[in-house]
Structures are given as structure tokens and as C-alpha cells.
Amino acid sequence: MASKKMLAIDLGASSGRGIIGSFDGKKISLNEMHRFSNDPVMTPGGFTWDTLRLLHEIKTAVLKCSLECGVDTIGIDTWGVDYGYIDAAGALISNPYHYRDNRTDNIPEYVFKNIVPWKELYDITGIQSMNFNTVYQMASDLKYRPWIVESAKKVLNMPDLLGYFLTGEMKSEYTIASTGALLDAKTRNYAFDLLDKFGLKRDLFCELVSPGTVLGKLLPTVDAETGNTGASVVKVASHDTASAVLSVPAKGHDFLYISSGTWSLMGIESQEPVITEESLKYDFTNEGGAFGTIRVLKNIMGLWLEQESRRQWAREGKKYSFDELSTMAKRSKPLQSLINPDDPMFSPAGDMPGRIMEYCRTTGQHVPENEGEVVRCIFESLALKYRWTAEKLETMTGRKYPTINIVGGGTKEEMLSQFAADASGRAVIAGPVEATALGNIAMQAIATGELSGLDDAREAVRNSFDVKEYAPDNAMKSQWDNAYSRFLTLIGEADS
């Protein structure tokens, strides 16, 4: 039987791709068919996604596949938490907000004071408190735009919304729904009693379905636009990190992973949520994974720090490639300056190098003097945050995790992978780069019967793509240990 042609629509915060995949019985092959930018829009009403343009680009990807190789199934993955409202006529009410929009800046405090205390919210949902969580965004809607919520018939997260545009079917996929503090982490269903407290009507939310569910065929109008493929849309693990974790080429289940890109999502795969006093104290999150697993993880401000620094330098007329920045960082003196990557001052767009220098100045450290020193500061600080996260996960679970698997685009930053090994004293296995698309394709293959399940999918990934291993540099151990003590002081845990 001929292998299915499976199209992964992988949407990131700044770009998207359409990647066609197939499975020959042993290996998964990938071929990028369409790449496009994802450009959010600032309007007087706020910072939003250009959702209908994204739909156009998805259709373009399907059409290209139709003309060149065919397509049988389509899976969509995106970032988490954001959503759109659908009215009674089936139309999108307004463009979905971008999670970096400032309308939620003070909403968590408002929620904790007026609706539900933070500990109660965490005990139910197990979700790390970040001001852009879906529940906070919807609380903002109810506070400042109640007419939108009142007129909405349904609400759909971004991949569910795009799947609806393609098929006319409205269902909520579990992994993406789990990102926004709307679900009960233990029951894996909506926390309706909690949502009642917010004033959110229960029938606003669509039926939850698991990854691997076939949503439906393309609408006739969409099929006609895209080459009459007759393709079906499959609900993959549609949160991009859930797809990335599915493709981690690990054997067994006791491993650390980092899905490395704009964010560093670092955690473990668990059969049950980890909701304890320690997980609350250290703000770990419990998001849904494929096959009923829970991704116990920490959202760490990842390569956003370098990406936004590079944009600032470009605004100043200094255009560098990432390779050039890495070369400059290698020439810089090690472990001079450190930051807490998750300090809120580093979240907004803008002059990131200036803020990093100001942070170092106010904390009494060497102030980075050039681009190489800024990038080295970013990479070393991230590596130390990885060590902290690994140690906290071991404490919370009582297990040892000797290896860190890093997947995603961040594996191209070889210096960061080596620093992760040096700082943590753990072996690092880096790759594959296209982890999210691979997980997306693998779930489509599982849905169509070409792969049997999670272990089978990971074996196929191991067969298909090379990885690179990094061993800790023991000669640098004392320097990293000293830097870690300084880092703990910066994050307020000098005695931990």
C-alpha cells in the first residue's frame, strides 16, 4: 500500500510552514512545500493575529502539495493559549488577540482578588501563572468587552479555529485546550465549576477530543480552491510543544526534554499531573500530551532574548546572522554576566540589549560591552536556568534524569547545547531540528494506521534523523558551579 502524503501545518509566532511527510515503514521523510511569515498586526484595538491571512497561506500550502505530490491528511499545530470567538452564524467575531497584547497586564491580580485565589486555580488546573493564559485573556474579555463573549456561540483555540475554517467542524483538541488553565488537570476535562466562577457559559466550549481524531474532510469550497484532494484534517497534538515532545527520540520514559525555540519549554513526560506545594512554589505547569500523558514543564524565556536583541541591532543598522552572533559570543570571556531569563523586564519587544545591560548594571555585575558579550550572557543564563529546572524536577518527582533531549530550532545553536551540558553536568542529545513537524506527521501516521503508537513513532524518529551528543566539559565544572551560586542569588534562591 502506498504511503500516505501527510501535510503538517506548523505555525510559530513569527513564521509558518507547510511540510509534507511520508512514512516508508521505517523512516519518516519531510519536504518543506511552503514557508510564510506570520506577521501580527497592531491596531487601535490591540495586538492581534492576521488570522485570515494565515488561512490563505494554509490553503496555498495544500494547493502546492496538490499540484506537486498530492495530500491525504492535514494536521495543524500552533502556539498555545490564543483563541477566537464564533457567532451563531458561524462567523469569526473578531481577530484573535496576540498573547503579547497588554490587555492582560494586571488581570491575574484582578482574578486572584475578585474571582478565585491563585492557589485554588493552580490546584485545579496545574497551570503555571502567566498573564497571557487563556483564562486571564477571557477574564479580560469579560471585564472590558463583555458584549463579545455574550454574542459568541463558541470559542476555539487557534489550531481548532483554523481546522474549523477548513472543515466546518468545531472540536477542541486536548493538548491545546490544556495550555490555558481551563481544564481540570486530573480529570482531563473542562473545569466547569471553576469556569462558572468567571461567568463563562458552559456551552461556549466545544467537545474535547484526543490527538489522532479525524476532524473531517475539507469543505467542498475549500477543496475546490486547493486542488480537489479530498484530504481530511486530523487533530494532531496541536500545541506545538506537545507535537515536539511526541517526536523526542528517547527510549523509555525517564528523560528531560527542552523544546527549544522562541521559548524553552523544559520538562518531563508524566502519566499524572504533578501538583504539589513545590510545583506551586516554583511555578511548574501541567499541560496535556499525546496518549493521555502530562507534560510537567517550565516555560523559560528562550531564544526570544537573542532574537529580539538581533532585531534591535538591525534597527541600529547592524545586521548579523545568528552564526555571526555565535562566533562573537565564542570570542567573549566566559561567565562574566548573568541574568534571570524570566525576569518580566525581558518579556516585551524592544531594546533587549539595553535591558540586559541595565539588569547587569543594577545587579552589580560586569555590563556587557558588545554584541558577543550580550549573546554569551543570554546563552549562559539559559543554561543555568536549565540546570535549576532539572534539579527542581528531580526534587519534585524523586527521580533522576541523567540526559537532556533538546529538540527544535534551538538545536542549531550548538554553543547553547554545549553550555546546557556544562552547566547541568548532564549529557545532552540535540535533535531533531524539525521536531514539531515530525510530531505532527507522526500523529497523522498513527491516525491512519501507519504507526501503532507513541513508542513506534519515536522509533521511527530515531531511524530517520541524526542527533548530536554533547558531554559536559569537566574542566569547566568549578566555574559553572560558581556561576550557578551567583545565578541562584539573582533569582532569589541563594539558600536553595
Brief description of this entry?
With 496 residues, this protein is an alpha/beta fold.
Detailed description of the structure:
With 496 residues, this protein is α/β, with parallel strands linked by helices. The chain is 40% helix and 20% strand. A 7-stranded mixed β-sheet has the order 17-18-16-15-19-20-21, sandwiched between helices. The chain has a 6-stranded mixed β-sheet with strand order 3-2-1-6-14-13, with helices on both faces. It has a two-stranded antiparallel ribbon with strand order 4-5. A hairpin with a 5-residue loop joins strand 17 and strand 18. The protein is globular.
Which SSEs are present, and which pair or pack?
Layout: E1 6-11, E2 15-23, E3 28-37, E4 41-43, E5 46-48, H1 51-68, E6 73-77, E7 83-86, H2 107-114, H3 118-125, H4 134-144, H5 146-151, E8 154-157, H6 158-167, E9 172-173, H7 174-177, E10 183-184, E11 189-190, H8 192-198, E12 208-209, E13 213-217, H9 220-225, E14 232-235, H10 240-246, E15 256-260, E16 263-270, H11 277-281, E17 285-288, E18 294-301, H12 304-315, H13 322-330, H14 352-362, H15 371-397, E19 403-407, H16 414-424, E20 427-430, H17 435-447, H18 454-464, E21 468-470, H19 477-490
Helix pairs in contact: 10-17, 13-15, 15-16, 15-19
